[in-house]
Inverse folding.
């Protein structure tokens, strides 16, 4: 009911309420008589605020529930654990506890620190196990049993794509966590899915010029690629970007997710004529493949008269921690790093550090930001009604979230912001100080036309 | 004798049907009365019933049953993509194709018995999983999973003039949705039919032959009884049950992933059957329910909800209780499942059903001689 009241401020609202209530009574009547069929028929007459997902049944109480769906087991478990910490911190800040973190630097912000639309924020958690099936089961539980109004999380693009399309069907907004595949906001984009994290295409565009600068333009690359949507698109993006600068690709080999032992994939690299190994791996996979590649002595070798190099296009501090010394001098890109000196990043690092005793990872940052962005969109829209919240997020420009001025592009629900090119530090000053920022690549350089990946967002009001 | 067992079966059937159809009501107090989990109960119930026809009756322990689950799922999604969003052609085709796979795998594997049979089926399952995961990516879409797309051909739907709207088409049964409670009732009807068929098989002469194979196959062979056709038939039926379960998984959620074929999925159904009670009719369904409940409910607990549960305790005790119990919930739910499994296998080798039998036997026994016995042993 409060949702209705807030809508009274807008000039159209009286008419729409009349229309809405009239339509919903007829529709309810029709529904109870014949089941499903007439929904099609009246969908046009339902001008505003028909029930979608858990709206309004689960948004009318004194509190609302968010669903945090992260990998707690499997190859991406470390990222998942850090994501969960960030979500809990975001909930605290939204409810006005703690020091507020990036809520103090975020502009333009409608956040109040009194929950969302005055309702206390609660949350439920689930384990995606980095498997599409388990992730969807877990998301369904959150929606059907716990009454979650928004689902967020995921540390694998396969899972993100699967959960995102489920959320589209159920009419629940999905704020993707760490997902880097071009498909998430490319060919598999959805109206109800939003991604703050950058993608493989941006990594390629940002990283390739630096690679050419450091290693020359006549290199031959060998790809090892995690065999799923993220790996495929990252391989493609890096290939395209590096080949445009004159590199050649010797081979691209797919490895199963969570393989553990990569030695059989690394041995053929040396005789392939390649002089750069590109590891399209993430999480524990990347830790294992990089450590094994270094143990095999690849980096001490010479090939084609040049030093053999290893590149990890998507980097994170958690992985750097896992890989230890192997990470030193390796180039890659990252969405965000805790060593950034802007006010927002500093505020977030301080807040996170006080709570948990260690600096946040890039996964934590993107998840924290996504939660705040959703809350802010609801405040801006003045309602939990999903289509209005989506419209508030589409084309939203903001700053003060640690990535500089950022745009949530309406055409594909992808955030556009600066990309960090980083390198594993040779002499880390602490166990967390593992990455040094080589270059902050400006947003302009990584922008692209949304039509290159195809896909369509779909309707604001899901068929039911 | 015959008539009374027939009456018992009828009673069992009626009680079972009533219990399944009222699941949304009596499972709500324990937090399991929501559509997705109810669907899982029904689907894995079917899977376990089918597995029990092979393992419970003939004693052949297959470690590769997830293959048929996966085949069922992939066939269903392909049927959605190529033929129609109506679930009937999809379910029928899935069962048939799973049957064909079972015939092929069974024909080879059933040449061996015991551990060799188990290893053979495991090898086939692992082979199928790896094929689906990487080699057959054009058919299975690998790790990402096979999904229904808007611009799929759907020949039958086009023939009958059913066009897709702006959003993704969803599976349906002549206008009935397959998600939420409707989806559960569709699965529940399949479960009841599956249970009925399994009961008929168990009570039939064919079922008797299967149990005879379990008790002593060599003696059967010596009496001139050719057991191969019987075991193969049991294997194929069991595979078709798994195919049906796989089809229903894709019906309630039109996505098929290779992880459904992983050996862990094959192991899961073995656990379900043993946990509930191999060879019994109800046992496997109970086992499936317990495992799915543990997976979905225990894994969802987090520290916050534990603090809430133990809020009646004073602060230090509450913290201690929470820190001990976090080991068993959330990401530690496998530990809980492991402990339950160990306890049941050690103390109730016949599964949960043996527990029930012991309780009923204990309740029926007059208490006096029991007490006397106790005194005797104490003395």
């Amino acid at each position: 009911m409060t949702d209705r009241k807030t809508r009274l401020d807008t000039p159209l609202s009286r008419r729409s309420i009349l229309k809405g209530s009239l339509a919903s009574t007829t529709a309810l009547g029709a529904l109870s008589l014949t089941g499903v069929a007439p929904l099609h028929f009246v969908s046009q007459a339902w001008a505003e605020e028909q029930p979608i997902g858990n709206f309004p049944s689960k948004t009318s109480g004194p509190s609302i529930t968010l669903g945090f769906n992260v990998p707690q087991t499997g190859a991406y478990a470390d990222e998942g654990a850090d994501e969960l910490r960030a979500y809990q911190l975001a909930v605290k800040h939204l409810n006005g506890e703690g020091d507020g973190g990036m809520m103090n630097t975020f502009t333009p912000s409608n956040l109040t620190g009194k929950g969302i639309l005055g309702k206390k924020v609660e949350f439920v958690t689930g384990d995606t196990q980095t498997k599409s099936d388990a992730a969807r089961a877990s998301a369904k539980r959150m929606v059907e049993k716990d009454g979650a109004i928004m689902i967020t999380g995921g540390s694998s693009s396969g899972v993100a794509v699967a959960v995102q399309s489920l959320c589209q069907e159920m009419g629940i907004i999905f704020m993707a966590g760490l997902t880097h595949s071009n498909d998430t906001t490319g060919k598999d984009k959805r109206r109800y899915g939003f991604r703050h994290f950058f993608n493989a295409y941006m990594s390629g565009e940002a990283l390739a010029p630096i690679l050419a600068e450091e290693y020359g333009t006549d290199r031959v690359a060998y790809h090892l690629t995690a065999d799923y949507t993220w790996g495929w698109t990252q391989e493609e993006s890096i290939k395209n970007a590096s080949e445009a600068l004159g590199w050649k690709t010797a081979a691209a080999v797919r490895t199963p997710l969570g393989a553990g032992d990569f030695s059989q994939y690394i041995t053929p690299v040396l005789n392939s004529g390649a002089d750069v190994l590109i590891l399209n791996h993430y999480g524990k996979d990347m830790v294992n493949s990089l450590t094994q590649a270094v143990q095999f002595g690849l980096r001490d070798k010479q090939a084609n008269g040049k030093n053999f190099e290893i590149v990890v296009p998507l980097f994170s501090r958690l992985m750097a921690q896992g890989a230890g010394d192997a990470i030193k001098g390796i180039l890659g890109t990252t969405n965000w790093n805790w060593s950034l000196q802007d006010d927002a990043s500093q505020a977030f690092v301080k807040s996170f550090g006080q709570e948990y005793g260690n600096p946040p990872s890039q996964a934590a940052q993107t998840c924290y930001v996504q939660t705040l962005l959703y809350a802010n969109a609801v405040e801006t829209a003045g309602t939990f009604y999903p289509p209005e919240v989506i419209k508030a997020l589409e084309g939203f420009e903001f700053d003060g979230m640690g990535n500089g001025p950022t745009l949530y592009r309406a055409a594909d629900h992808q955030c556009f912001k600066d990309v960090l090119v980083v390198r594993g530090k040779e002499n880390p000053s602490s166990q967390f100080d593992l990455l040094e920022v080589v270059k902050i690549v400006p947003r302009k350089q990584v922008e692209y036309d949304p039509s290159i990946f195809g896909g369509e967002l779909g309707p604001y009001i899901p068929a039911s | 004798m015959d008539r009374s067992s027939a009456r018992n079966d009828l009673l069992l059937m009626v009680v079972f049907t009533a219990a399944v159809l009222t699941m949304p009501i009596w499972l709500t107090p324990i937090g399991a009365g929501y559509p997705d989990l109810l669907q899982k109960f029904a689907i894995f119930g079917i899977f376990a019933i089918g597995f029990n026809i092979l393992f419970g009756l003939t004693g052949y322990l297959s470690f590769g049953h997830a293959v048929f689950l996966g085949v069922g799922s992939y066939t269903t999604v392909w049927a959605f993509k190529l033929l129609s969003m109506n679930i009937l052609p999809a379910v029928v085709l899935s069962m048939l194709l799973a049957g064909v796979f079972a015939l092929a795998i069974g024909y080879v594997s059933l040449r061996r018995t015991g551990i060799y049979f188990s290893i053979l089926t495991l090898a086939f399952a692992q082979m199928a999983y790896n094929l689906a995961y990487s080699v057959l990516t054009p058919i299975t879409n690998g790790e990402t999973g096979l999904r229904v797309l808007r611009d799929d051909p759907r020949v039958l739907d086009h023939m009958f003039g059913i066009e897709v709207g702006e959003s993704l088409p969803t599976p349906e049964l002549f206008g009935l949705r397959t998600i939420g409670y409707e989806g559960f009732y569709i699965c529940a009807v399949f479960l009841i039919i599956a249970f009925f068929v399994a009961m008929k098989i168990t009570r039939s002469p064919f079922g008797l032959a299967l149990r005879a194979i379990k008790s002593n196959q060599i003696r059967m062979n010596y009496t001139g009884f050719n057991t191969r056709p019987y075991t193969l038939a049991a294997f194929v039926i069991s595979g078709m049950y798994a195919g049906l379960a796989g089809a229903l998984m894709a019906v309630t959620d039109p996505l098929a992933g290779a992880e459904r074929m992983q050996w862990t999925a094959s192991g899961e159904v073995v656990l379900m059957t043993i946990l509930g009670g191999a060879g019994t009719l109800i046992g496997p369904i109970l086992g499936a329910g317990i495992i799915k409940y543990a997976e979905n409910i225990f894994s969802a607990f987090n520290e916050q909800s534990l603090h809430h549960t133990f809020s009646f305790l004073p602060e230090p005790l509450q913290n201690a209780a929470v820190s001990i119990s976090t080991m068993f919930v959330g990401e530690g739910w496998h530990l809980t499942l492991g402990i339950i499994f160990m306890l049941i296998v050690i103390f109730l080798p016949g599964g949960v059903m043996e527990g029930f039998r012991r309780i009923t036997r204990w309740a029926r026994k007059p208490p006096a001689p029991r007490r006397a016995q106790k005194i005797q042993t104490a003395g």
